[in-house]
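2024-03-11 09:14:02 INFO worker-7 job=invfold-0412 stage=load source=structure_tokens
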């Protein structure tokens, strides 16, 4: 054979030109199933042929249970519903853990429950001078802004602490420090 020649066609040499086309006459042979044995004479339909190669025949299903039901298992009711006169009842108490909600206060108003008047509110906010304002003032003085420019942090709300109060009872709820 030459090196560029295709491998030989598997099958009959006369069928070489019919690749992919139906055979002449339109008849296809039945497919071959490996391990299929036609029924043997002398055996009832559905029975297995005699074992070949030293293997025993496959086993059938499970044997029928005596009395129709298997014996009852512990923890399960008998089949057909409850037949005993005593009903086993038990009460299970599950303790739920307490949920603690941590409210975080920051520079914006927060929806919460007032601890003083127990009303569901949105807090009112106002600003006060805090530690951060004083630190910025000292830094500006050190940098040479001592002619009044160092007082700017006391006028800017972004440098001041935030006080949250209740709009109903006017009580102090929380303070948010910038530093």
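2024-03-11 09:14:09 INFO worker-7 stage=emit residues=179
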């Amino acid at each position: 054979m030459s090196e560029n020649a295709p491998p030989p066609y598997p099958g009959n040499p006369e069928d070489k030109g019919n690749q992919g086309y139906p055979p002449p006459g339109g008849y296809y042979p039945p497919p071959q199933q490996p391990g299929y044995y036609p029924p043997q004479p002398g055996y009832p339909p559905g029975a297995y042929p005699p074992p070949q190669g030293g293997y025993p025949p496959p086993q059938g299903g499970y044997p029928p249970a005596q009395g129709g039901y298997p014996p009852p298992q512990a923890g399960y009711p008998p089949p057909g519903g409850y037949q005993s006169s005593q009903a086993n009842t038990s009460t299970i108490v599950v303790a739920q853990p307490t949920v603690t909600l941590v409210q975080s206060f920051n520079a914006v108003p927060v929806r919460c429950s007032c601890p003083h008047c127990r009303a569901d509110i949105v807090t009112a906010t106002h600003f006060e001078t805090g530690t951060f304002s004083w630190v910025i003032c000292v830094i500006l003085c050190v940098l040479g802004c001592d002619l009044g420019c160092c007082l700017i942090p006391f006028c800017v709300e972004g440098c001041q602490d935030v006080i949250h109060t209740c709009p109903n009872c006017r009580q102090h709820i929380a303070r948010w420090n910038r530093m």
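2024-03-11 09:14:09 INFO worker-7 stage=report msg="The mean pLDDT is 76."
2024-03-11 09:14:10 INFO worker-7 job finished
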